[in-house]
Write a structure and sequence with these properties.
alpha+beta, Heat Shock Protein 90, 5-stranded antiparallel sheet
C-alpha cells in the first residue's frame, strides 16, 4: 500500500501519526482507500494533525478513529491499535457514551463536558479519569455531518489537586472552629480586687461561689483569710510565696492551685493578677482573675502517667525490636534465597513444559512401538520428578498457585489419617488433639495436608522411626507484642503444632532449618526442601511458622493461621469422563515458540481449532480486527506493551465476557495478589500434560457457559 505518491493536498502532514494514517489500509472501512478520500476529510485530518492538543476524529456511523500525536500519548497502551478502529470497539468500557456522541453530532448537534468523570481501563485496572471533552460535527463534501471532531483534555491531576485543596480547606475550617470554641470555653471563674491596706476582697458572685463564701456575705467585704484556708494544704505555702514576690518586686502574679468545693472535692484553678502601688510607692490593691484549669491539669496528670508508662513500654519495645531485627535479618535472607529459587524454578518449568509436551506427542505418534513407549514413560517420569522439585522451590519462594478455601481442622485427620499410618509405620503413634469447636482458617487444603505430612515424616526420622508424634490445634488471640517482627498483625489465630521426642536440633542447625537444600540427613535420604516448603506455604497463607527445639528432648513446629469467617467450602467435583474434547476456537498466546507449538498441537489433537499469537500485542490486534474465538489461553509473563492482565481485562469487558486461561511457571503476583486467583480467573501451572491441559480448558469453557 504505497499512497505517498498520491497524497494530493497532504504535503504538509508531519509526525508519526501522519505516516501511520498514510500507511494504514483504509479499504475495509467506510472511509475507503486513502488515495480516494474526499477533500473535506483530508482538510479535517490536516487540521487534526496540526493541533498540539489531543484530537480524535470519529468518521462515519461506526466512528472510525483518526487521531493526532497528542492523542496517541493519551491512548497509552491502546495506541496504535485504536487507529482505524470503531470507537465502541476501541473504548468498550465507555461504548454507550461514545455511541451517544456519534449519534448526536452526526445529527448536527454539539456536546461539551467540563471535568467529565469516566472509568477507563488502564494497565488492565479500572481507573477514575476526569476530562474536558468537546464534540462537534465535521461536514463532508455535501455539507452534511460526516464525522465528529473530539477535543480531549485530561484534567485528572487538576481534579485530584482540587479535591485535596477542598479537603484541606475543610480541615482548616474545622480546626479554626475548634480553636475558637476552645478560646470561648476557657471558663473564667470570677474576678477580684484585694485591698491590701484593709486586707479585704471585693469580688463577683462566681469568685465567691468558687471559694464557697456564704451567700449572705457582702461581696465587697470578703475576708482574704477565708479564701486562703480553702486552698489545698499542699499548695498553700507556694501561693503565699508567689503573692509575697508579686507585692515585693511588682512581678506579675500567676499561680495554679487546688480549691476545696462545697461537695468536698478539689478543683484546679489558675489565679493571675498584679500589684498596684499608691503615690508613695506602697502596695495598695491587687486586682486579679480566676480561671478554671481543672480539665487541663487532669489531662496533664494523665499525660505524665502515660509518659511514665511509655518509658516502660519503650524499654520493652527496644528489647522486642532487637529480637525482631534478628528475625527480620533471617527473614530477609530467606526472602533473597526465595527470589533466586523462584526465578530458577520459573525458567526450569518452561524447559520442562517443552520436554513434556513433545514427549506426550511422541507417545501418541508411536503408540504401537513398545520400545519408544518404555523410553517415553521413563522420560516423562523424570520430567515429573523435575516438576516436583520445581514445585517445592516455588512453595519456598511463595510463588506457587494456591486454591484457598474455608477449612476446619477437625477434618485434618479424615484426610491424613490413613496416609500417616502408611508413611510413618507401625512403630510410630500419632496423637491428635483438636478443640471441639476450632476456628476456621483460609488455606489450600492440599498444601496444608502436605505440610503436616512433611513435618510428621521429619519427626519420625528424628525419633529413628519409633515414638509418639503429637499434632494439636489451638484457638489463640495473638498480642501486638507477640506479632512484632513476624510479618503478621495481632488478632485471632489458629495454631497447628507438630511435636516429637526425637534428637532435637542445636541452635546453629535451628538457624538454618528453613533454608532450601539444607539437611542433616545422609546423601540420598532427603532434598532439604521439606521445611522450606512449609515455610513458604505458611507465609503465602498470611501466617507465621516457627520452630523450637532442645537437643536430646525433641522439636516442635508451630504454624499460625489467621482466623477466617464464613462457611466451610465444599470439595470441588471433578469433570465427568468423556467431556475433555471439544470443537471450540482457542487463541493461544505464548512467546516461547516451542511451548506455543506443543500447546497448539495438543489442543488440536483434542478437536479444538487453534490460532496462535506470539505476544499480547499480536493477540489484541487479531481481536480488534474482528477475530472471533471462544477462549484465550495465554502465558502470564510476556514481552510487549499489552500484558496478559490487560488482555484478560479486555476479554472480561466483552458482552458476554470472553473466558481466559492463564499458564505460567509462577504468577509473579501479576495475575493476583499473593498468588491467589480471583473467582473469575483460571491458572494452569507449567509443566502440564495433555490430560491436565484438556481438563482445564474444558472446565473454563463450561464455567463460561454456566
Amino acid at each position: 500500500m504505497h499512497f505517498l505518491s498520491q497524497d494530493h493536498g497532504c504535503e504538509g502532514w508531519r509526525g508519526e501519526m501522519a505516516a501511520r494514517i498514510r500507511e494504514f489500509d483504509w479499504s475495509p472501512t467506510d472511509l475507503g482507500p486513502f488515495n480516494q478520500w474526499p477533500p473535506s476529510l483530508r482538510t479535517a485530518v490536516q487540521f487534526l494533525l496540526a493541533s498540539p492538543v489531543p484530537l480524535v476524529m470519529l468518521w462515519g456511523r461506526l466512528g472510525y478513529m483518526i487521531y493526532n500525536d497528542a492523542y496517541s500519548v493519551f491512548a497509552g497502551g491502546r495506541h496504535p491499535y485504536l487507529l482505524g478502529s470503531p470507537v465502541e470497539l476501541g473504548w468498550p468500557e465507555v461504548a454507550d457514551f461514545n455511541r451517544n456522541v456519534v449519534d448526536t453530532c452526526l445529527a448536527g448537534g454539539t456536546l461539551s463536558y467540563r471535568n467529565k468523570e469516566l472509568v477507563l481501563l488502564r494497565n488492565g485496572v479500572p481507573e477514575d479519569v476526569w476530562m474536558d471533552l468537546y464534540y462537534s460535527p465535521v461536514p463532508g463534501d455535501d455539507g452534511r455531518p460526516a464525522g465528529v471532531m473530539s477535543i480531549v483534555v485530561e484534567t485528572t491531576a487538576h481534579m485530584l489537586s482540587e479535591r485535596a485543596r477542598q479537603a484541606a480547606e475543610r480541615a482548616y475550617r474545622a480546626t479554626n472552629e475548634r480553636l475558637q470554641m476552645a478560646l470561648n470555653t476557657g471558663a473564667v471563674l470570677g474576678s477580684f480586687v484585694w485591698d491590701l491596706k484593709h486586707d479585704r476582697l471585693s469580688a463577683d458572685e462566681r469568685f465567691a461561689r468558687t471559694f464557697s463564701y456564704p451567700p449572705q456575705w457582702d461581696l465587697d467585704q470578703l475576708p482574704s483569710a477565708f479564701a486562703m484556708e480553702r486552698i489545698h494544704g499542699d499548695d498553700r505555702e507556694r501561693v503565699r510565696e508567689l503573692i509575697d514576690l508579686a507585692v515585693r518586686v511588682g512581678k506579675p502574679y500567676s499561680a495554679e492551685y487546688r480549691v476545696l468545693h462545697a461537695d468536698g472535692s478539689y478543683r484546679w484553678v489558675q489565679a493571675s493578677g498584679r500589684c498596684d502601688y499608691d503615690d508613695n510607692g506602697q502596695a495598695s490593691r491587687f486586682p486579679g482573675v480566676l480561671i478554671d484549669i481543672h480539665e487541663r491539669k487532669i489531662a496533664e496528670a494523665s499525660l505524665l502517667q502515660l509518659t511514665r508508662n511509655l518509658e516502660q513500654r519503650v524499654e520493652e519495645e527496644v528489647r522486642a525490636r532487637s529480637e525482631a531485627e534478628d528475625k527480620l535479618r533471617q527473614s530477609q535472607k530467606l526472602e533473597a534465597i526465595g527470589s533466586l529459587t523462584g526465578g530458577v524454578a520459573h525458567d526450569f518449568n518452561n524447559v520442562l513444559q517443552v520436554i513434556a509436551g513433545n514427549l506426550h506427542l511422541l507417545a501418541r505418534q508411536q503408540g504401537d512401538n513398545p520400545q519408544v513407549q518404555r523410553r517415553v514413560t521413563a522420560a516423562i517420569a523424570a520430567v515429573e520428578r523435575g516438576a516436583k522439585l520445581s514445585s517445592q522451590l516455588l512453595a519456598f519462594a511463595r510463588r506457587q498457585q494456591l486454591s484457598p478455601a474455608i477449612y476446619n481442622l477437625r477434618r485434618l485427620y479424615d484426610g491424613l489419617g490413613e496416609l500417616l499410618l502408611r508413611a510413618l509405620g507401625e512403630t510410630v503413634r500419632v496423637r491428635m488433639q483438636v478443640p471441639e469447636q476450632p476456628w476456621s482458617i483460609h488455606v489450600d487444603r492440599n498444601q496444608l495436608e502436605n505440610a503436616v505430612l512433611n513435618l510428621a515424616i521429619n519427626a519420625r526420622d528424628a525419633m529413628n522411626g519409633e515414638g509418639v508424634i503429637a499434632i494439636s490445634a489451638e484457638n489463640l488471640v495473638l498480642s501486638r507484642e507477640f506479632c512484632a517482627g513476624k510479618d503478621i498483625v495481632a488478632g485471632n489465630y489458629v495454631r497447628l503444632s507438630i511435636s516429637d521426642t526425637g534428637v532435637g536440633m542445636s541452635p546453629a542447625i535451628l538457624a538454618q532449618a528453613f533454608e532450601p537444600f539444607f539437611t542433616t540427613k545422609p546423601d540420598g535420604h532427603g532434598t532439604g526442601l521439606g521445611l522450606s516448603m512449609v515455610f513458604g506455604f505458611v507465609k503465602q497463607s498470611a501466617g507465621h511458622v516457627e520452630i523450637s527445639s532442645v537437643e536430646g528432648q525433641g522439636t516442635t513446629v508451630q504454624m499460625y493461621f489467621p482466623r477466617a469467617e464464613g462457611v466451610e467450602s465444599a470439595d470441588e467435583l471433578p469433570l465427568a469422563n468423556g467431556t475433555l474434547r471439544g470443537e471450540e476456537t482457542i487463541l493461544v498466546v505464548e512467546d516461547d515458540d516451542q511451548v506455543r507449538a506443543t500447546a497448539a498441537e495438543l489442543l488440536e489433537q483434542s478437536g479444538y481449532r487453534v490460532i496462535t499469537a506470539e505476544n499480547g500485542d499480536v493477540a489484541l490486534r487479531f481481536l480488534l480486527d474482528g477475530l472471533s474465538v471462544d477462549m484465550i489461553f495465554t502465558d502470564v509473563v510476556m514481552p510487549g506493551q499489552v500484558k496478559s492482565a490487560d488482555l484478560a481485562a479486555w476479554a472480561q469487558a466483552r458482552t458476554p465476557p470472553l473466558p481466559v486461561l492463564f499458564a505460567s511457571g509462577h504468577t509473579r503476583d501479576i495475575i493476583s495478589r499473593n498468588n491467589e486467583l480471583a473467582p473469575h480467573q483460571h491458572l494452569l501451572s507449567k509443566p502440564y500434560g495433555p490430560e491436565a491441559l484438556t481438563a482445564m480448558v474444558r472446565r473454563v469453557l463450561q464455567d463460561a457457559t454456566g
